[in-house]
Amino acid sequence: MAKAVKLLLASLPPSRSPRSAAANYQLRITRASSTSSYTHSKMDSENYTFGPYKIDHKEVFYSTDLSYAMVNLRPLLPGHVLVCPRREVKRFVDLTAEETGDLWLTAQKVGSRLENYHRASSLTFAIQDGPQAGQTVPHVHIHILPRQSGDFEKNDEIYDAINEKEKELSQKLDLDKERKDRSLEEMAGEAAEYRRLLL
């Protein structure tokens, strides 16, 4: 049986081989993300938007040609950040294949570094895709939250907290008296720390 599979694979043209297809896909994704990381000086000169909001470059700590990562105005937990496509896209389904790959590779890299930095044991990655899913900023984004045991009494409460935070941001209401908007200086300081992690 194994000999028959080897013969079948050997008879396929190189580009049709399952291993070759996977390798080609990985190479394409790697090129889209690893070769396009921005330097700090280039990030500092870029303009960033998050739906209708202009984002100060000091809040952005990692960027590629297709995605960027920024600190959160009202983080739920230490290390709660957002990863967004650079192009303003309202729904996940509207991302190109290259944007989707780069977005998730960026989230993977950022999440890994923040989990270590915050001595967390897990990560929550969350996307709210559309208004009925709780999305209030019309720009695809991934919430990344480093998690530790006991950070929420019930694990799924984090999704309610993310939903509430989204509503606050879009309505500019202070529904949660405990969490206040952070100053640009606070967010810039945190972003500077995270930039060093991703060098």
Characterization of this structure:
This protein is α+β, with helices and mostly antiparallel strands and 199 residues long. The protein folds into 2 domains: 2-32, no CATH class; 37-197, HIT-like (HIT family, subunit A, 2-Layer Sandwich). Helices cover 42% and strands 16% of the residues. It contains 6 helices and 7 strands. The strands form 2 sheets. The chain has a 5-stranded antiparallel beta sheet with strand order 3-4-5-7-6. Strands 1-2 form a two-stranded antiparallel sheet. A hairpin with a 3-residue loop joins strand 3 and strand 4. Helix 2 (18-34) packs across helix 4. It is globular. The protein starts with a helix and ends with a helix.
Percent helix range: 40-55%
The quaternary state of the protein chains shown equals single chain
Order of strands, main sheet, comes to 3-4-5-7-6
Distance between the termini: 48 Å
Kindly name the structural category: alpha+beta
Strand content: 15-25%
Give me the CATH fold name of the largest domain: HIT family, subunit A
Number of separate strands: 7
Q: Which architecture name of the largest domain does CATH use?
A: 2-Layer Sandwich
Poorly predicted spans: 7-35, 172-177
Order of helices and strands: HHHEEEEEHEEHH
Largest beta-sheet details: 5 strands, antiparallel
Number of helices: 6
Radius of gyration of CA atoms, rounded to a whole number: 19 Å
Mean pLDDT: 80
CATH class of the largest domain: Alpha Beta
What does the overall shape look like?
globular
Number of folding domains? 2
